[in-house]
Amino acid sequence: MPLRANLPSVVRILLPILISQSVLGLAIKYRHSTLSSEVLVAWLFFLPSHSLRYPWTILTATLVENNLVSLALATLTIFYGGRYLERAWTSVEFAKFLLVISLIPNIICCGALLSLFALTGNPQWTNTIIHGTLSIQVSFLVAFSQLIPTHTVTIFKGIISVRVTRLPILHVLGVTFLVMTPLLSLASFLLNVTGFLTSWTYLRFYKEAFPDLQTSQSSLRGDASDTFAFAEFFPDPVKPLIATISNKLFDFLVILRICTPFSAAEVSASNGELFMQRGTPGSARAEAERRRALALKALDQRLHAATANHAKTSNSFSSTPDGPSMQVHSQSAGLELERLRGDTSCSPKGTPDEERMAP
């Protein structure tokens, strides 16, 4: 019961499906080959040659792993990464994201394998199994790059330190290396690369973002912030080249009306001037409450310090020119503190004192 209570609704659905389908696939793998087991594999995994007969596998095969190591990694990915993203985005937005990063990479991978079959005539391509959470794994890393672009992952007691924005490319490189071994097939590489590109495209241009509570606009689509540009995933030496190529590709997509160019206002909004892009509508209220708490704490300290200094001065000197001004300062700080404590409104921008006290 505690485990269920700590998991959001979509993650609670995904984990049993992943584990049950993967265990079923492992059981089939270690059974003696029979006609019924071959049909069941086609029903469970996504094969281009059987895609018309079992169309649902184009979506469900994403949650099937064929070995215990990949199953454990997929379980951890959905448990921790999925829980974080669902709470940051809401269950509806997280479900939309999962649908996009599961369906589109599988379709592209199937189309690529069918094209290879048409070119070579080798039936091996149409019988290549498409399955696994590789597209989900790299897509979650892309989402983290959007939400926490300045964070750094440190392992081995600080010996290795990697920025979050570099993790998707490292994941792609790792999968590319494993494809050269018998561990992974070409389908895994295609799923990984298309998952990376699909997730970034969706988050960059299509995902709905939530506005600051003080603005009159209802929503903003995509994320035009500089920190989420495609070139930011790559090391600094190759960023100019990647930026040039991606800009040319973007101009081509604009001509095809697949993407819409961002306006200056949208760029400013995504960079944080108008919108709380990286969170739910409650993020603005939470930020205002955080600033108010900081302001209250600072005013408390000022009030106590002023009171203590005034008492010390009164004991040492019967009358000083600074006495009245110190008393006025204490009373002013106290009135300001009472005003903040009694204010029940929540403004994302905060009061002038809150803005000055906020880090």
Automatic annotation (TrEMBL):
Top-level taxon of the source organism: Eukaryota
Keyword Thylakoid: no
Membrane topology: Multi-pass membrane protein
GO cellular component: Golgi apparatus; membrane
Residues annotated as transmembrane: 6-27, 39-56, 68-85, 97-117, 129-148, 169-191
UniProt-recorded name of the protein: Transmembrane protein 115
Subcellular location per the Swiss-Prot or TrEMBL entry: Membrane
Segments of skewed composition (Polar residues): 310-333
